[in-house]
Amino acid sequence: MFYQKEIETLPLSKLRKLQSQQLENLVDYVYQRVPFYKTKFDQMGIKPSEIRRIEDLSKLPFTFKTDLRDNYPFDLFAVSPQEIKRIHCSSGTTGKPTVVGYTKNDLSIFAQVTARSLAAAGAQPGMKLHNAYGYGLFTGGLGLHYGGELLGLAVVPVSGGMTDRQLMLLQDFKPEVICCTPSYAQTLAQEVQKRGIPKNSLHLKYAVLGAEPWTETIRQEVQEGLGVIATNIYGLSEIIGPGVSQEDFEEQGGGSHVWEDHFFPEIIDPETRQPLPEGKDGVLVFTTLTKEGMPLLRYWTNDITHLYYDTDSKRTHIKMGPIKGRSDDMLVIRGVNLFPSQVEEVLNGIPHLSANYQLWITKKDKMDALELRVELDHRVYQELNFNQVKIGVQLHQEFLDELSKGLTEKIKNNIGLTMKVTLQDFEQVPRSTGGKLSRVVDKRRAESKTKK
Ligand code: DLL
Prior knowledge:
Rossmann fold; GMP Synthetase, Chain A, domain 3; four-stranded antiparallel beta sheet; 13 helices; 2 domains; 452 residues
């Protein structure tokens, strides 16, 4: 389904022409209006008149999260305070948040790209959207809210949390579309099963999941548990919020289209800081081609993925693969680089384990110690006639020992790290209670601080 078919299917030659014009305007715009960019250009000896085509983009400087922090709260805004109509913040947990401001036109574009995303996810005018993304400074709730309305959906602004109420409204209001984080969709799917809620009392068809990394195992669990087709939505506040890219519901697993008439993506080698070709993994960088309030040049997202054109797709816009991790999420354990997604990939291949896990990192005798806490899949209990919370039962000890030994070996072979594996009963690992879920508990810094 399309929301803006003409632009979503624009031939690439025309798209490039449009992007070149947009970039030319953008460069003049930021040079005139944002002192931070004027200083950067002057220092680097770049004249705005030299940037004429989208191919000239690589001559421009990157913008980093630290630049946003250094210009806290409003110094990167390109318009007068009167023209800013909404302010959001990124979901940082420490220190000052990163702030973004939108003009009326930016908000209109925000609604258009989220409407496009919902349509690509399967939503159609006349349907109801259960919006369980958090409303507030986080861009998820309000972002999808206005996109839903624009597409012609009836939006139920539930926000995150209060699972009892969510389940009641899902049954009573019978929405066809739900959007929330994938970890919260998992929580909902598990609760539906646990409470014996009949599947036919839910009328959901489509789930639009994003704001955190997720895997094919989670997709399957959510699809089966809620009876939906689940697609990926990606975005970040600095660029606009949700709706930077979206997977099509008929092209599942095939990557997400970046709405590149507004957000121009590049993949950059983090070492050389040079652009990488199609298909290569590196850091995703975006230039906002049409933003007025806080336009950004080559914003370094820290997210790691690749880009590619899919000529079999019904849309022309470039696709991005799933986010493999964030370069600042990369853990260094005894000198080995580890992304939590690598552990997830190993877990995906083991049917007796659920997709719920946590990585605990501590320091023992000055060495990093890693523990993987992972739950048994709920189906194991029926298969082996376990009762719930029976993990220590003698009868099954052999099975459990085999399972954790196999997992330890698999991790060693695939990732090159030895970690302690602790199997837990179903539902013993923390779940999402509404928002983004953190799978890593790093105690190293806290411990060295308390020791001082
Ligand atoms: O998470 C915006 C959003 C809301 C996206 C709702 C999708 C749905 P921030 O709080 O600024 O914005 O966090 C942005 O979250 O740089 C990624 O690291 C991560 N992220 C967002 N979507 C995905 C996704 C919102 N689909 C940061 N897959 C980004 C993996 C994602 N990671």
